[in-house]
């Protein structure tokens, strides 16, 4: 028996709900996306606004102490050092379509009725066939959405003015350059800078140059209350980091012998208790030698309430026998403190 349009909507809605779990990123992807996973888990809501998401930040203080005796004149300050960082919010769409022709090719008939007339009950076999067709298309939409969101959260926004500027717009290679970030001049405000150490020497592993420099910089990341909890690295950076560990014989007991067999690998590496995660996207972006240390308390998405992967079922145009499914995400990426994030790279 044929499907009604309403039945197709119900089945496809259930399939979308399965693939797009509310507020999370599913694990059915072809490539790990640790930044996307972390960002989606840290999403916060906001009610919307005309242009930008704004946060108030402050890095300068005027009030100080003053010694006095008897009738000495004392002074009073009038601090006015609050600045506003502004970040654009954008509307992001991903969608699929399928046609009546496609369904008929798979033996699925559709009763094209919106008023309930000519209603028919589909067989279990037809339901399974429709679910299988939708599963393939929705898996494509899910992976495509994840790839696009992940790429957006990493890149600096110059690739497309209609997408959200990502991590690389806040954690820049040259934080001392004349550049406005979030509406604040980083050159004129030294406190409004991320940290960067690029081109670290990586020639003699036994020197442990990278490990020692990271140790030094990590202290500065904590200087103003930072607690980096997300460290993402490209493959070349991780390869060298592991070489420095091997050069000093830093194998665990589990790394040598287990169940009578020798395991010559190094366990997943950590720094200051934070795992260095491999993010394949850095390789894709030509940044295999880079590593980003982020504090996700101070860099996170803000989404208009109710607009986090909202599902849509656009009506079929009267002149086309096509069915449409879509999801939208409306928000921006916010950084309210830059001096707790750092980019590293090896030469």
Question: Top keywords for this entry?
Answer:
alpha+beta; six-stranded mixed β-sheet; flat
Summarize the structure.
The chain has 347 residues and is an alpha+beta fold. It has helices spanning 5-19, 34-41, 100-105, 124-154, 167-170, 209-221, 235-247, 280-284, and strands at residues 3-4, 44-46, 52-57, 83-88, 90-99, 110-111, 180-181, 184-185, 195-200, 230-233, 257-258, 261-262, 270-271, 274-278, 290-294, 299-304, 310-312, 322-335, 342-346.
Structure description:
The chain is an alpha+beta fold and 347 residues long. It is 27% helix and 25% strand. The chain has eight helices and 19 strands. It has a six-stranded mixed beta sheet, with helices on both faces. Strands 2, 5, 16, 17 and 18 form a five-stranded mixed beta sheet that branches. Strands 1-6 form a two-stranded parallel sheet. A hairpin with a 2-residue loop joins β7 and β8 (184-185). α1 (5-19) packs across α4 (124-154).
Give the end-to-end Cα distance, rounded to a whole number of Å.
66 Å
Largest sheet: 6 strands, mixed
- Kindly provide the radius of gyration, computed on alpha-carbon positions and rounded to a whole number of angstroms: 27 Å
Helix content: 25-40%
- Low-confidence segments, given as residue ranges, are 22-29, 115-120
N-to-C series of helices and strands: EHHEEEEHEHHEEEHEHEEEEHEEEEE
Q: What is the count of DSSP helices, taking H or I runs of 4+ residues?
A: 8
Approximate strand percentage: 25-35%
**How would you describe the shape?**
flat
Report mean pLDDT, rounded to a whole number. Answer: 85
Order the strands across the largest sheet as they lie in space: 9-19-15-10-14-13
Going by helix content, strand content and strand pairing, the class is alpha+beta
| Total number of beta strands | 19
């Amino acid at each position: 028996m044929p499907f009604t349009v309403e039945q197709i909507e119900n089945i496809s809605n259930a399939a979308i709900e399965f693939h797009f779990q509310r507020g999370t990123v599913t694990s059915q992807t072809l490539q790990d996306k640790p930044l996307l996973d972390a960002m989606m888990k840290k999403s916060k809501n906001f009610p919307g606004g005309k242009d930008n998401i704004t946060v108030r930040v402050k890095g300068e203080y005027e009030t100080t102490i003053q010694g006095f005796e008897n009738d000495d004149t004392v002074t009073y300050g009038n601090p006015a050092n609050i600045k506003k960082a502004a970040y654009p919010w954008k509307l992001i769409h991903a969608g699929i379509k399928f046609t009546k022709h496609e369904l008929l090719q798979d033996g699925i008939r559709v009763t094209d009725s919106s008023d309930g007339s000519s209603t028919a009950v589909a067989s279990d076999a037809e339901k399974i066939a429709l679910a299988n067709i939708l599963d393939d298309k929705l898996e494509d939409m899910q992976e495509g959405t994840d790839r696009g969101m992940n790429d957006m959260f990493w890149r600096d926004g110059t690739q497309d003015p209609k997408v959200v500027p990502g991590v690389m717009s806040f954690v820049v290679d040259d934080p001392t350059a004349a550049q406005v970030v979030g509406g604040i001049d980083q050159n004129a405000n030294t406190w409004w800078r991320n940290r960067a150490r690029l081109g670290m020497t990586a020639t003699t592993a036994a020197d442990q140059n990278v490990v020692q420099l990271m140790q030094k910089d990590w202290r500065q990341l904590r200087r103003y209350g930072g607690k980096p909890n997300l460290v993402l690295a490209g493959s070349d950076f991780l390869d060298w980091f592991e070489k420095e560990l091997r050069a000093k014989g830093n194998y665990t007991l589990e790394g040598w012998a287990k169940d009578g067999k020798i395991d010559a690998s190094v366990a997943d590496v950590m720094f200051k208790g934070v795992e260095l995660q491999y993010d394949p996207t850095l390789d894709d972006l030509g940044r295999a030698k880079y590593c980003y240390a982020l504090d996700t308390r101070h860099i996170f998405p803000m989404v208009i309430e109710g607009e986090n992967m909202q599902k849509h079922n656009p009506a079929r145009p009267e002149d086309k026998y096509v069915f449409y499914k879509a999801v939208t995400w409306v928000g921006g990426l916010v950084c309210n403190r830059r001096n707790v994030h750092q980019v590293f790279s090896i030469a």
